[in-house]
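Appendix C reproduces, verbatim, an entry submitted by the partner laboratory led by Prof. M.T., so that reviewers can inspect both the input and the predicted structure.
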Amino acid sequence: MSTLFSFMVDEKNEGFTIRKLLESFQPAKKMVNHLLNKKVMINGEYVKEEDICHKGDIVHVDFIGTLPKSPKLSSSPKIDILYEDDHLLIVDKPEGLLVYDDGQASDDLTGRVNLYYHQKGYDLPVLPAHRIDVDTSGMILYAKHPLALSYLSQLFERKEIEKVYTCLIRASIYPKKGTIKDKIMQDRHSPKMMLSQTGLDALTTYESLGVEGLYERLSLKIETGRKHQIRVHLMGIGYPIVGDTLYRGEHANRLMLHFNEVRFRHPLSKEIMHITSKVPF
């Protein structure tokens, strides 16, 4: 399996030292030091940490010794790609599909992604920077190499990724916009999460997008990523999501919750990325 990755320096990185370029991905210092020990080349020549990068230079990185374990491949390479470049991949996850192998299911999105790239001859593990519930549909952000994974993980950790969801409720919500700050913890007696003053901080904001007959469509943003956060927060204020029978929602053919919009800075160009996904309900 190849451990090599190459990319081109753009104008935003003109004049960076190679150390500064690697550090712009915000990896651990240990990884940077490892890579600078004869693991990085510019235009085919090994570099020192103070060597300068110029627009158009080709950086070659050998991730030997830093690669995580490759995911188990699924039987199907079917994926819906919303965005892709040398560093990132954003895929639309269908409802009912796991993001990552749980040791029991024969199919998961990450297995599909890695089969897709394996068939294209790309050998580095392509890994998700976050997860969403199996019953929730929407975008999953993948990193195509360890530096990009470090970058995306840091963005999620520091809450520097704007995440927007859409859902349906069977009611007319009041007020039409608001913020929910109730703490959340695992229910020790069931697979559910629960509201608790001794739980972890969680913040969800919502806004009505309009009434649709007996239903109302909401747009939601989360600043934290607790398990089932939106679901338990809306149940807690009396407006469970349609299809969410775990949290008292009415029966439907699926959970009416979709991760449909994301904004963040690109790891290399530092430009604001704004990617959307069509809501399937």
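The chain has three domains: 4-62, 80-158, 163-259. Additional entries are available on request from the coordinating office.
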